[in-house]
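Ticket #4471: complex job returned nothing on first submit. Input attached below:
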Amino acid sequence: MEVSSDYAVQMHGITKVFGSFKALDAVDLNVRKQTVHAILGENGAGKSTLMNVLYGLYSADEGEVYLNGERVSISGPTDAIAHGIGMVHQHFMLVENFTVTENIVLGNEVTKAGGVLDPKRAREKVLEIVEEYGFDVDPDAKIEDISVGMQQRVEILKALYRGADTLILDEPTAVLTPQEIEKLIQIMHDLVSKGKTIIVITHKLKEIMSSADECTIIRRGKYMSTVDVSKTSETELATLMVGRNVNLHVEKKPATPGEVVLSIKDLHVKDERGIEQVNGFNLDIRAGEIVGLAGIDGNGQKELADAIDALVKPESGTITVKGEEIQGTTPKTVIDHAVATIPSDRHRWGLVLPFTVAENMVLERHNEETFGKGIALDLAKIKEFSQKLIDEFDIRPAECADHQAAGLSGGNQQKVIIAREVSSNPDVLIAIQPTRGLDVGAIEFVHKALIRERDRGAAILLISFELDEIMDVADKMAIIYAGKNVGEFDQGTITEEQAGLLMAGGDAE
Amino acid sequence: MSTLTKIMRKPITSAIVAIFVGLLVASIILVVAGYDPISSFEALIGGMVGKPKYISNVIIKATPLLFTGIAVAFAFRVGLFNIGAEGQYIVGTILAVIVGYSLDLPPVLQIPVVVLVGTAGGAGIGAIIGWLKAQFGINEVITSIMFNWISLYLCNFVVSLPQFHQPNSTSSYSINESGYTTLFYGMKNSEDGAEAIRNIPVIGDAIMRTDVNIGIFVAIIAAIFIGWLLMRTKVGYEMRAVGFNRDAAQFTGINVKKNLTLCMAISGALCGLAGALTITGIAPHSIATLAAFENNGFNGLSVAFIANCNPVACIPASFLFAGLLYGGQTVQQTVGAPSEIINIVIGTIVFFMALGGVIPMLADRLDHKRAQKAKEEEAKLAAQVSDASDPSQEEANNAH
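Support reply: We reran it on our side without changes. The output follows.
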């Protein structure tokens, strides 16, 4: 490796070990000045670990870091900031009831003599940067009142205010609408043209293609290669990332919808704070079709799903499964109506992590006679049943029936939940962000499972914040905004842009 | 992983090391306080197992601790902290005395009625605590502590009632003899019988002079039953699911509220049973005005945590704990150490047993250090090899 001042950041032979797990194994990274450099890898591949080393949150066990051709040792975030490195985390670190200006100067306040705050000069300084980079941000707005996209811009401003020349963005598009993503990419290009260097951590191929100049791929803690984005394709990147050929698009036959199985009528649901989150929602789902519910997080998806699963009582409205009302009953009643759910948070809702895989497999069915007479539990039967599912769903390791569920990888944990939920041949399947946090290979598996269930005749509601996923998997798309169903479209009759506008509360026309 | 660290990970190793370190620290305390540790521990062990009579008394003392220990362990496995074992135990004793004194049925009926009413009392208190938790989310620690005080004063109130108060004493009347679960009670009180018992070799004296009763057998059966209930039944499966992850349990259709209430009811029932069996089994078969808690429930907390909340492991843990308590008295008598020092010594040993979880952690650290050392060695070796190899290789390395 040649150390040169043409590079804003060079990392050489970075190794980081956690216990017996090698998170990074001699990884190299060379980021040219004034470029957007993407770091691509599956979940757990070590992308964030590598950036945390650069930002000084972790110290590497081996390897060197060079900034602008000079060897440095970064011992903490303060050190990193002093070296001109800024980081925008996936989860924003903003004080909700402070203004934009207050958040930006926080920890680096503008003061008069004797440490007295000088809000006027602080505001001027912030405005200066806002204008220099052409950000559309009101310095006096409170964080809680501005959109997620704008909050992200505040985070970027925070880094710029501290004099960052190199910006690390960790999964920056996870929470944005398609329009906001476009705006972010524009901002990234503007920043580069003004002399900044940007490193983006992501697993979204499409965004790399439209934003990055170069891309470094990491697989299971090992450096794979660095490619020129203009000379590659999404498929090539995916293959490099996963290590085998993957099918990025789901192959499926056209749906053959039957009778309406799940019907939601004029549903109103309040959240814990008493605010009405689902606000007159209507939706019908037929047997043998996947309806994708698109929307930005926080528009009532959680409350809608909770109401279907009878975890909360709706204020009014009905939810019927094959003509029988299930709203306001108990989760058990809902399950008895052949409604299965793949929950959004597999650790919180889906699995009892200290339980073995076998114990998790029978969570909804342990009371069946097959698994023991009377109150006794037939452990051998449970294991036999689980082993069948483990084999059928290719859950790894194959002998995991007696292992704690906590020890499985995220993808395999999700497979356990899917295996359990579909093993009862449900009439209705509610899949809430079923691919969240999964890598490309596991996503492919989940999508195939959903389509297999559809073809078996289940009515499927797919709730997802990833528009791509809904575009790809669903037969029909419904859009939720402010707790209402604001439009239903057959697949192919709406573009991503139109959907994005509806998701943001606009008009598709 | 080496053999050493493998051994360190075994739960039994933790227990043994904990006892050993506890004794070591306790020795230091004894030396500082001016007492000879060796003779102190000799007295302690002697006081525990020196005579059949001592062993018998240790077993008798262990009985309520085993019950309350499994009660606490069971609740803890379901995610509840039953600090109210003390109060539920007291309620068991109160109800056993009321029923055992008021009724005088034949023993086949009297004993079950007295024991069941005491058990039901503990279960009732537990159920209220569990229901309040399930329905309104009221923390079970607060309600159990309050019930401890309610039970204590209820006990004193019942003792003070004229129909139960034994004149010129601080206690109630004893229950009727038909309710006694003391073994060989009839024989001990007839001259021929007493003679026959005394003539039994080795243990005759112990049986004669201690309140040998059926309690320990019931307690051991209860420990095994609770272990089975937790691990091998649908009821226990649901409860463990609730204990580990209430959200997932609810999501998959398990009735969380029912399970929380039921769990506390079972936990309370075990404590109530302990109280009732103490009344039926041990003289004076009555309750007395309590100035302070007798710690039958609170010591159950220690037993449960020494046993790592495994109901069956509570059996040895309760024997050990009762042995320390009982043997401690002998130390006081023979070495002359005040009871405060003895209690500090017991506390120290239990403290280190509670720290037992540290040892597997040490094993992890040891493994990690070894792995690192091995890696360093490897790197050194690799460096030597590459030094010895030809220069062109080295150049290639540098270029990379």
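The interface with chain B takes residues 1, 19-20, 309, 311, 330-332, 334-336, 341, 343, 348-355, 359, 363-364, 366-367, 371-372, 375-377, 379 of chain A (CB under 8 Å). Closing as resolved unless it happens again.
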